[in-house]
Amino acid sequence: MRVFAPLLALGLMASAAHAQCGGPFPAFVKGLKSEAVAAGHKQATVDAFFSGVQQDPKVLKADRAQGVFQKPFIEFSRRLISKQRLDKGRAMAKKYDATFKRIERDYGVSRGVLLAFWAFETDFGGFQGDFNTLNALTTLAHDCRRPELFRPQIFAALTLYEHGDFDPARTTGAWAGEIGMVQMLPRDILINGVDGDGDGHVRLKTSAPDALMSGAKMLSHLGWRAGEPWLQEVTVPADLDWSLTGPGQNLTVADWAKRGVRPREGKLAQGGLPASIILPQGRKGPAFIAYPNFNVYFEWNQSFTYVLTAAYFANRLEGSAIYDAGTPEPGLDGPQMKRLQQKLAARGYDVGKIDGILGAGTRAAVQAEQKRLGLPADAWPTMALLNRL
Question: What is the pLDDT of residue 65?
Fold first, then answer.
């Protein structure tokens, strides 16, 4: 499930006095109402908006249980990418060809990118979530894990309600408050919502043109570079300096080419672009070159495995071949990964939460320890590394 990066300030400004969370839920809602009125919303509107809000324990349960991201890339991508999704994606590309042409002209976002998000988030609008959105946002704002993310979304939903584009009793979506076919939070809708079908409203639940145009504008707002690639499968030489690989470690495309990196299909991007080599399951597994637009994916979702799968699926929807899975060394299961994270944390590395997920912090720590121990520094944790530690 998506976890958004911090968004632009809009509407009500959060102050220290309004940063509270926790406490009795009715008192928390009372505080939200007072804050909304102080920001200029009419009392009657605020009362109507919050009249039926309830705490939803199912939202908190979902927030604590995102185990799907523990799966390695090959397993995860094969689970999410099916022939049915490919066929439907290509059919949707034809059905909404005029909309995609507008997107490509106005925002420079290739259709495969949006089709992949549309597929993974809601199966092309088929399942958009059945959690009451206001309840979900208020529950998560009341919870003290990430109130700074979810509290502003409540007031954004209130503004949408005033515009006639949100129903506090009937608007539903994902457990984390995202709405519509490409799953956008209320504040994103206010900032990036586009009336793609010309009916005077931004309806991301029922209008594919609205959803796709809004998603494209949001990607552009997050830094998408018009007309540039995002990801490409490559082959890498066996003697590559593996310590140079990984997200955030950039050389120019020309430098990678000098080191023997070759595209499996087509040509590499122009030589001056910065790029990184991604080895999701180490030097013996699939290999990709990631261009600047790949980094924008992490503004949409912060899971490395999800991001890489979505970026690869966008390529597949535009005709690329299935990646070469190679023969990666066996990875670690959940308990083994937690043991590894504990050992790395004990050595002073910031691996974040000990959760068994191979995130960016754990990958960086693994690569550093591999280099220290004289192992191939490809950031893929194995039993050999765990035993050495």
Answer: 74
The strands making up 288-290's β-sheet, listed across from edge to edge, are 251-252, 274-278, 288-290, 231-235, 262-263
**85 in a structural domain:** no
Q: Are residues 351 and 294 in the same domain?
A: no
Q: Which residues of the chain have pLDDT under 70?
A: 1-19, 66-69
Q: Do 257 and 300 share a structural domain?
A: yes
Domain of residue 353, residue span: 334-388
The pTM assigned to this predicted structure is 0.89
Q: Please report whether residue 78 resides in a domain.
A: no
Kind plus residue range of the DSSP H or E element containing 263: strand 262-263
Q: Please answer whether residues 111 and 318 qualify as being in contact, where contact means their C-beta atoms are separated by less than 8 angstroms.
A: yes
- Which strand (E) or helix (H) includes residue 112? helix 111-122
The pLDDT value given to residue 215: 97
Helix, strand, coil abundance in the chain, percent, nearest 5: 50, 5, 45
Indicate whether 354 belongs to any domain.
yes
Q: For residues 325, 326, 330 and 331, what is the CA-based torsion angle, rounded to 10 degrees? A: -50
pLDDT in tens, 13-29: 343 334 479 999 999 99
